[in-house]
C-alpha cells in the first residue's frame, strides 16, 4: 500500500503464478509445462537468428512470417491471426478490446484464475457460472443470448472438454456477442473450434505455444478469428507495445509450427503418460477427472490436499494446489515424463502409508 498508488492498483488481486522452484533437481509438475524440449529445429532457428547479428534491431512489429505460418497451418489468412507475448497477453487484450460491454462476460466459477484478474484490471463486469457437481460446464448457463462468453476448452484445472457441437450451439445462440474459446490445452485430446471460424464471425479462438509446443519460456500466444476481431486486438497492441514478440521468439515459433511431426510425437507421448499417471493415482485411491489436457485433477477422499502438496514439496516434487472453494481438496498434477510420474507415484505411496487419514466427513 502506498499513497502513490492509483485507485485501481489498491483494488487489484493479482494472479499468482505457479512456483518456479530454486530446488536443484525438482520434479516439476506444477505449471503444465511440456516435459519434452521443443523441436531441434527451434534451436537451429534461434542460432541462425543470433548468427545474423540482428538483435540490435527491432523485430517485425507485425510478426508477419509467424502469422503467415500459423494461418497456413490452420487454413486461415494472416488477417485472421493475432500474435501476443504469451496467450496471457492476448487474453488481456481480449478483455479490453472485446469483452467490455453493457452485459457482463460469463465464464465458469472454476476456471483459469487469470480471467477474474483481467476483468478487475480492466473494469469488465463478469458473471462466474457454477460448474455442475461433476465439474462439467452446463452449456445452458451460456446459451440464452445474454452477453460475451469465455470458456477454456479443455477447462483448467479440471481437464474436462466440451463437444464441438456445444460450442457451435453457443455461437449460434449468441450471434451478437463474442465467444472466446481458450484452447491452451486443446492439442492433448479436445476438438479445436478453429474449423468454426469461417462460419462464425463472433468466434475468437486463443491458443499458445507454451504447452503443446514446449515453448513456455518464449512467450508466444495467438488469437484466431474473424478479421474484425483481430483488428480490434491489433488496435490495443499498437496502443500498448508495438513490438511484443522479440526476434528469437518469432523465429522459434515459426520453426515449432514447421515441425509438425515433432509436435505430434511429443503430444502423443504426453497423452500416453497421462493415462498411465491417472491409472497409477486411481490405484492409490485417488479420484481423477477424465482429462483431455496435459495435467490431471485428482482428489484423495481421505487425505488433505494442502498437506499432500507440502509433503510432496519436501521431497522435491511440485504439484499445484488451489486454495479455492470446491477445489481445495484437489491436486492439479502436470503430466511429466514417465520417470517423473513414477517418482510422484512412489512418493505418494510412501506418504499415504505413513500419514494418517483424516475423518472423511470433513472432506466434502
Ligand atoms: C497456460 C494457460 C494460458 C497462458 O499461456 P501463455 O503461456 O501465456 O501462452 C492461457 N490459458 C490457459 C487456460 C492456460 O492454462
UniProtKB/TrEMBL annotation:
Reactions it catalyzes: L-histidinol phosphate + 2-oxoglutarate = 3-(imidazol-4-yl)-2-oxopropyl phosphate + L-glutamate
Molecular functions per Gene Ontology: histidinol-phosphate transaminase activity; pyridoxal phosphate binding
Annotated keywords: Amino-acid biosynthesis, Aminotransferase, Histidine biosynthesis, Pyridoxal phosphate, Transferase
Gene Ontology annotations of biological process type: L-histidine biosynthetic process
Its EC number(s): 2.6.1.9
Pfam families in the record: Aminotran_1_2
UniProt key word Transmembrane: no
Quaternary data: Homodimer.
Family: Belongs to the class-II pyridoxal-phosphate-dependent aminotransferase family. Histidinol-phosphate aminotransferase subfamily.
PANTHER family: HISTIDINOL-PHOSPHATE AMINOTRANSFERASE, HISTIDINOL-PHOSPHATE AMINOTRANSFERASE 2
Protein's name in the database: Histidinol-phosphate aminotransferase
Gene, per the UniProt record: hisC
